[in-house]
C-alpha cells in the first residue's frame, strides 16, 4: 500500500480494523508503511483502544452461560466463540512472560494451555478431564504474535470426547493437537 | 504407626524427613496420626521450615552451569537433579492457582509444563524446541500434591532428541509423555 496522507489513512485504518479487529499495532504499521508511534497516534485520534483492550471488549460478551465444563475465566486466552459440544475459537497474545528469554520464541506449554483449555471449554458436560493428547508444534511462534486457536469435536462416546485443535498466526498453522477428554455429568 | 509421645515423635519426624525431604505437612500428619497443627508445632520446635522452603534450599544448588538450553529459572517446578544429555528430576507443588476451581484437580497444562520444561532442560545444546509430544494423564492430581517428574533421553540424532518423562505423586504414576525436541548448537 502506498503511503497515505493522515486523513486518508485514518479512514483506511477504521476499515481495516472493522474487517479484522485483531490487527496489532505492528501489523497496522506494516500495512500502512508508517511507524508504530504513528499508529498509536492514529489510534488516539480515532479513540481506538490498543489490541488488548479491543479483545477484552469482544471477550466481555460472556460465555459463562454457555460453558459447563469450567469457569470461563479459566480458559487460557480470550474466548471469541463457543458452541458447546461442537466448536470454539480463542485468541492468545504472546507477551514477554510467554517466551524464552534468549530467543523470544513462545514456550510450548502456553500453546498447549490455550488449545487444551479451549478443548475442555467446548465439552458439553460439567466434568471434563483430559486423559491424553497428541501435540505438534508446526512453526515457531514469536513475541507479539496473536494466536487464534480453533477447536472442534471430532468424536463423542459415552465417556470420551475427542477434540481437534488447530492454532494459527496470520492464517499460518503454528500448532495442532488432538485431545482425548473424559466427561461425566457430575462434578466428582 | 501408633501414636507417639512428642519426644519420640520429634525423633521419628527428623528421621522421616531425612529419608524423604519432600513429605508435606499433610503426609506427616497422616504418618504420625496427629493434626496438621501438631505437625506445624513440631516443625517449629525442630526449626524445620515448611516444604516450600525446604525445596528451595535443595533448589538453591544452582544448575545454571549445567543447563544449556534455557535459563534454569525457566524450568517449571524446582530442578532437583540434572545430567544434561541423559536425565533430570524436578518437583512441582500443586497450589491453588494450578487447579480447577470447582474440583481442585490440577490443570493438565501445568503437568505438561513441568514435564516439557524438564525435557528441554536436559537437552545438551543451546537451542532446543519441542516439535511434538505424546501425553497421557494417568491419574488425577489434586491440590497439595507434590509431583516428581523424571525425564530421560531415549533417542538422539543429529537434529532431534526424544525425551521420555514420567511424573509421580507418592510413587504413583500420574502422567507420562514423550517429547520430540529439535536441537541445534546456535541460538537462532
TrEMBL record, chains A, B:
Keyword Metal-binding recorded: no
The keyword Transcription regulation is annotated on this UniProt entry: yes
SUPFAM superfamilies listed in its UniProt record: Thioesterase/thiol ester dehydrase-isomerase
Residue ranges of domain HTH deoR-type in the record: 9-53
A GO molecular-function descriptor: DNA binding
GO BP term, pick one: negative regulation of fatty acid biosynthetic process
Swiss-Prot/TrEMBL keywords: DNA-binding, Fatty acid biosynthesis, Fatty acid metabolism, Lipid biosynthesis, Lipid metabolism, Repressor, Transcription, Transcription regulation
Domain of life: Bacteria
Pfam family, one: HTH_DeoR
The name this protein goes by in its record: Acyl-coenzyme A thioesterase PaaI, contains HGG motif
Amino acid at each position: 500500500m502506498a503511503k497515505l496522507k493522515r486523513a486518508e489513512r485514518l479512514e483506511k485504518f477504521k476499515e481495516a480494523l472493522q474487517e479484522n479487529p485483531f490487527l496489532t499495532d505492528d501489523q497496522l504499521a506494516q500495512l500502512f508503511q508508517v511507524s508504530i508511534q504513528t499508529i498509536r497516534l492514529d489510534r488516539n485520534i480515532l479513540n481506538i483502544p490498543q489490541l488488548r483492550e479491543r479483545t477484552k471488549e469482544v471477550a466481555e460478551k460472556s460465555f459463562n452461560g454457555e460453558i459447563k465444563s469450567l469457569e470461563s475465566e479459566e480458559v487460557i486466552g480470550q474466548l471469541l466463540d463457543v458452541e458447546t459440544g461442537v466448536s470454539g475459537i480463542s485468541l492468545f497474545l504472546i507477551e514477554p512472560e510467554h517466551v524464552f528469554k534468549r530467543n523470544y520464541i513462545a514456550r510450548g506449554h502456553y500453546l498447549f494451555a490455550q488449545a487444551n483449555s479451549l478443548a475442555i471449554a467446548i465439552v458439553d458436560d460439567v466434568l471434563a478431564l483430559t486423559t491424553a493428547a497428541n501435540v505438534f508444534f508446526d512453526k515457531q511462534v514469536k513475541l507479539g504474535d496473536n494466536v487464534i486457536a480453533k477447536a472442534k469435536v471430532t468424536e463423542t462416546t459415552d465417556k470420551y470426547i475427542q477434540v481437534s485443535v488447530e492454532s494459527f498466526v496470520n492464517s499460518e498453522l503454528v500448532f495442532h493437537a488432538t485431545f482425548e477428554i473424559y466427561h461425566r455429568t457430575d462434578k466428582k
